[in-house]
Amino acid sequence: MKSMPIILLLTLLAWPLTSAADSVQKGEIRLEMGEQKTMSFKGLKRISIGNPKVVDAKTVGDADTFLLFATGSGSTNLYVHRKDKPTWVFKVVVVDNFARETVVLKHADGRALEQLLRPYLTKRGKITYQRQTRALTLVDEKPVVAVMLKMVERFDVKPRQIQFVLRLVEADKVAKPGPVPDEIKPVAKQIREVLRYNHFKVVDHAFLAIEANQQSKLHVGGQNGYTMELDCQMVAGQRDSIRLKFHLYKSAKMLPSKKDVVSARKTLIATTVELKDGETAILGASRINGSGKALISVVSVKLK
Predict the structure, then answer these.
(1) Which residue, of 54, 55, 87, 229, is most buried by count of CB atoms within 10 Å of its CB?
(2) Number of domains the chain contains
(3) Could you tell me if residue 9 is inside a domain?
(4) Is residue 15 a part of any domain in this protein?
(5) Which among 245, 181, 246 is positioned nearest to 220, based on CA atoms?
(6) Which domain holds residue 113?
(7) How many CB atoms lie within 10 A of CB 237?
(8) Which of 125-134, 206-215, 243-252 reaches the highest mean pLDDT?
(9) Where are the beta strands (DSSP E) in 121-240?
(10) Regarding predicted confidence, which is higher, 15 or 230?
(11) Residue 73 pLDDT level (bands cut at 50, 70, 90)
(12) 105 HSE (CA, 13 A, CB side)
């Protein structure tokens, strides 16, 4: 008697030991890639899977329960063998609903954008940012990635130009205050109520236009030697708000023993504030030495 060819023998051994006569088609199970599904059948004897590259399974809890894992896209049959009953056959379809998109950012701060998008991720989602290449990679379910791509498109735009009008105001407390200069009228009430000054004189003013995420320095006050430093950032997730780090300092000459004259800087105002487009605000105040007067910094912001 001739022996059975090895290839045919292996094929028969791998085939589920279930014939059409003793099996019942039970419908379709749809899973997404990576999804798990707990299934339970009374009198479960064993299970078999047509293609283990599509789904895998392991028993959990009691003998009638198992966990089905979606491991690869495609379709296969799940055979549920029961004691003294027909085998149930389920068609299992695994859909790869994940998307992977990489965007090379042109303008946006990658780290800030990464933090902005992270709350939108599902448990299986992932965001990575490569500073060297400015590549932002989004991996998640297709609808989630689509939403994040729209947000990237919204925020990865050329930085807006920010125009500042900066004013140095000398404030005093007098019995008969003069009229309030027009340029500080939006904050005059606040100065009166909070700082308790009632007489104002604009010492100097300056106009500055820079792009967001830039730093700048300018000198004001003429011979008084005041310097303003500005570090301006857009507020993440907001197109009409900026975060401004502001320093006002005065250069003072010092003469160390047996050394040349050098300049030391005396910080008068240091603050960080959030400002909206069109807003006028007080950045801070510093008392002028030897008097009851104060030097107040006032800023007006316009986003272009």
Answers:
(1) 55
(2) 3
(3) no
(4) no
(5) 246
(6) 100-155
(7) 13
(8) 125-134
(9) 126-130, 135-141, 161-172, 199-211, 214-220, 226-234
(10) 230
(11) confident
(12) 28
Calpha distance 246→33 (Å, rounded): 51
Could you tell me the two tokens for 96? 């790869």
| 171: helix, strand or coil | strand
Structure tokens given for 266: 């005396």
Q: Same domain for 215 and 296?
A: yes
Within-domain flag for 2: no
In this structure, the number of other CB atoms found within 10 A of the CB of residue 44 comes to 19
| Residue position matching structure tokens 């950032």 | 233
pLDDT band at 1 (very low <50, low <70, confident <90, very high): very low
pLDDT digits (tens, 9 = 90+) for 130-172: 999 999 999 998 899 999 999 999 888 887 889 999 999 999 9
Q: Give the span between the Cα atoms of 292 and 172, in whole angstroms.
A: 7
Distances (CA, A) of 281 to 20, 58, 185, 296, 303: 81, 65, 11, 11, 15
For the record, the structure tokens of 80 come out as 């549920």
Evaluate whether 156 touches 116 at the Cβ level (below 8 Å): no
Measured distance CA(294)–CA(288) in Å, rounded: 5
Q: Do 251 and 225 contact (CB within 8 A), yes or no?
A: yes
Identify the pLDDT of residue 252.
Answer: 62
What is the pTM (predicted TM-score) of this model?
0.52
- The type of residue at 62 is D
Phi-psi region at 134: left, alpha or beta (left = phi > 0; alpha = psi -120 to 50): left
Q: Which of residues 109, 128, 155 is at a domain's end?
A: 155
* Tokens, residue 97: 């609903």
Q: Using alpha carbons only, what angle is made at residue 76 by residues 71 and 81, rounded to the nearest 5 degrees? A: 105
Residue 68 lies in a domain: yes
Q: For residues 122 and 79, state if they share a domain.
A: no
Residue 144 belongs to domain with CATH number: 3.30.1370.120
